[in-house]
Amino acid sequence: MPFDVLGIIAPHPPIMVEEVGGAEARVTHVSAEALRAAADLLERFAPQTVVIVSPHAPGFADAFTVTTASHLHGDLAQFGAPGAAHDVPGDPDLARAIIDEATAAGLPIAAREEYPQLERELDHGVLVPMSFLDPADRYDLVEASFAYLPAEDHREFGRAIRRAAARLGRRVALVASGDCSHRLKREAPAGFSPRGHLFDEQLAALLARSDYEGVAHMDAGLREEAGECGWRSFLVLGGFLEGTDAVTRVLSYEGPWGVGYLTAVAAPSEELEGLRAYTPEVGAKGGRKDDAESAPVRLARQTIEQFIREGTRPVPPAVVDPSLPSRAGAFVSLHAGGMLRGCIGTIEPTRPTLGDEIVRNAVQAATEDPRFPPVRVDELDDLEISVDVLHAPERIETLEDLDPRIYGVITTCGWRRGLLLPDLEGVDTCEDQVAIAMSKAGIASGEPISLERFKVDRYE
Questions:
Q1: pTM for this model (two decimals)
Q2: Which of 25, 132, 205, 213 could be disulfide-bonded to 35 (CB atoms 3.0-4.6 Å)?
Q3: Residues 218 and 326 in one domain
Q4: How many domains does the chain have?
């Protein structure tokens, strides 16, 4: 029996299209292969119409738009490839039904054709994904734009698309076009943010759990620092999938030019068999359940499981590990699927014993890290946990005294204090390490700071 729901998240860098990028297109082969896998799934779904939400579609800040045209055309001439063109049948009946459903829900929406100032040609946010998903232009197409309206309006827009498809009896797949952070590297076109990668890590982790509610509540400041362009498209997809049996699987993620490209599919779980989920190349971040865990990690895991299941905390042992100090600052870090899931700690001891320190910070990492929703019971078995026990910090004068593989850093400006642990994936220079620590403390570039370094004993 054919499945009845399909969603796709697709990146849209023109350079990954061979006619544009030539040999350089191979740099994004991971994304290209993932999109081809999504294309196979799309072919099995056999939609009558594909609705694609593009960040670059012509539209308005205060209203959604859809194209009601019966024929759509576009090419990548502005990227040096006029031959990379698509001529696609439109679906004006579905487009008008979407407008009707959105209007009934109180959403501001317009048909693009009613506004002569809006571009009619398909943009690269459509052309790039569809070059992989439907190179033969077999499916009817409706292009939609998002707006700069609240997150819930975008989710309702997705619901309106699904209601319109059901009303007409259309088999409709929804493609959410969009890239992640545009500020992953110093040479990135939009500049560099030391927190850009955090947005991508959090987004990938939320999508891998099909947690579109969590996507909707991602921190606005983090989104701004990341310079993303796909968040609103993904919200529309979340609304479209709501109430279905679809689960989301992230197929790939890469950021070779400083922009994050994520590809994912959403369908009933049995339709995703054989599709390999994206796993970060950095591998496991800490001890997994049933591994031979160190004493600090066993205590952290016992604490988290007991608190999440029962709402109580264990009584910590008087001595966690005879080789460790009786009191010390400690950080508890949680990862799921290779992605950060929570990290809370203390620079200096705040509790009578190291065991008390670990218990407190484990609960906070699981339930009070403001970047993430609290850990759920169904996540406990998949948590990777590490515990960093901090040595006493020492004052330094210059960056020459740092080594991000060996030392963590503390930046201080007045009452603001930011810390970054050592030996973190993607933090390769002292400059990046200090910039991230400053950002975490809300210290702006150029403000005077004092520096401290510290070593850790990392337990997994």
A1: 0.67
A2: 132
A3: no
A4: 3
Q: Are residues 253 and 350 in the same domain?
A: no
Task: Give the N- to C-terminal CA distance of the chain in Å, as an integer.
Answer: 46
- The verdict on 15 and 48 lying in the same domain is yes
CATH no. for residue 314? 3.30.700.20
Q: Are residues 369 and 408 in the same domain?
A: no
Q: Are residues 350 and 431 in the same domain?
A: no
Same domain, 174 and 189: yes
State the 10-residue block means of pLDDT for the chain, 460 residues long.
90 96 90 96 97 96 97 96 95 98 98 93 97 96 97 98 98 98 85 84 90 94 92 98 96 91 96 82 50 83 95 90 86 86 91 95 93 91 90 89 88 91 82 89 89 86
Any domain includes 338: yes
- Residue 83 sits in a domain whose CATH number is 3.40.830.10
Q: Three-state SS string across the chain, please?
A: CCCCCCEEEECCCHHHCHHHHHHHHHHHHHHHHHHHHHHHHHHHHCCCEEEEEECCCCCECCEEEECCCCEEEEEEHHHCEEEEEEEEEECHHHHHHHHHHHHHCCCCEEEHHHCCCCCCCCCHHHHHHHHHHCCCCCCEEEEEECCCCCHHHHHHHHHHHHHHHHHHCCCEEEEEECCCCCCCCCCCCCCCCCCHHHHHHHHHHHHHCCCHHHHHCCCHHHHHHHCCCCHHHHHHHHHHHCCCCEEEEEEEEECCCCCCEEEEEEEEHHHHCCCCCCCCCCCCCCEECCCCCCHHHHHHHHHHHHHHHHCCCCCCCCCCCCCCCCCCCEEEEEEECCEEEEEEECCCCCCCCHHHHHHHHHHHHHHCCCCCCCCCHHHHHHCEEEEEEECCCEEECCHHHCCCCCCEEEEEECCEEEEECCCCCCCCCHHHHHHHHHHHHCCCCCCCCEEEEECEEEEC
Q: What pLDDT score does 338 carry? A: 74
Structural domain for 120, as ranges? 7-272
**Co-location of 245 and 294 in the same domain:** no
